[in-house]
Amino acid sequence: MSENVPEAAVAEYKRGFACVDGEFVPAATASVSIFDHSFLYGDGVFETIICRGGRLFALRPHLDRLWASCQYLQITPPYDQEQITAFITELAKRNELSDGYVRVVISRGEGYPVSDPRKALKPKLVISMQGAPAVTRPPGVGVKLAIASTRRTPPICLEPRVKSNNYLNHIVAKLEAIAAGADDAIMLDLEGNVAELPVANIFARHGDTLATPPSNGILAGITRETVLRLVAEGAAGPGLRVVQRVMTAYDLFTAAEVFIVGTGSGVAFVESIDGRRIGDGTMGPATERLMDAYTELLGRDGAEPDLQLTTKEA
């Protein structure tokens, strides 16, 4: 913290320390160049990792996906995974982080302000931490969603498995949802099929079947993959199976229950979509079981799932 700025006067999300290229600095005064190509063009990648009880969940899968995103964009990470893990561990210690979130960003770096990646030759690493989610929802209160007219950028235009720093497509959809009085947006693909939320994946239950959109047109999240594993292990209830298939709004409106999953949201039930109540408007049994199972998994020692997130399904 700057000696001239009392901690109480600093917004909570800026308190504590950040790590910039291996240097630990006050988060409130941490900075990158105005010529950084991530700042100028969104030319970079990131991951957000959940921490519970001082344990980082699925750190290796997150770093593997970060590496795959860098490789796709031809960005050479400035540090290896072991070094970044050490930076995260030290930063968590300095911030006394027990429950919260870690954000790891790699940008292409500083360079002449033109959208030519050859002008930025030294990638930059920034790691920050938050002790609380951006939004908290009281128990029993569901998520209200709206179907956005803004369509998910198709794979033919941009590979969806790259977790890049350019989220404008998602932000425009979110703006639509806010204008409609909803909490978040459901994005469709160009054919009108359900894709995902700006920062979450979606599931719907009909009878003993849970359905979720296939991963070939979305950012198939680590929480999504974790939930798929939990369902396969029976955590959602006896006899319940999960399928990945093409879905439309009809499949959501007629579902017994709908829920979303993501690093920030965890497992959260959907109360309504476009003002239409889903089921009876309360949390369904499969959602409740999965929420409990996911919470238990986060708190389990050695919870480092072996997740494969970089290959498309046939």
UniProtKB/TrEMBL annotation:
Q: What are the UniProt keywords, alphabetically?
A: Aminotransferase, Pyridoxal phosphate, Transferase
Name the protein family. Belongs to the class-IV pyridoxal-phosphate-dependent aminotransferase family.
Report the record's Gene Ontology biological process terms.
amino acid biosynthetic process; carboxylic acid biosynthetic process
Q: Name one GO molecular function term.
A: transaminase activity
Q: Which organism is it from?
A: Spongiactinospora gelatinilytica
One Pfam family of this protein, by short name?
Aminotran_4
InterPro entries with a match to the protein in the record = Aminotrans_IV (IPR001544), Aminotransferase-like (IPR036038), BCAT-like_C (IPR043132), BCAT-like_N (IPR043131), Class-IV_PLP-Dep_Aminotrnsfr (IPR050571)
Q: Which SUPFAM superfamilies match?
A: D-aminoacid aminotransferase-like PLP-dependent enzymes (SSF56752)
Stated name of the protein? Branched-chain amino acid aminotransferase
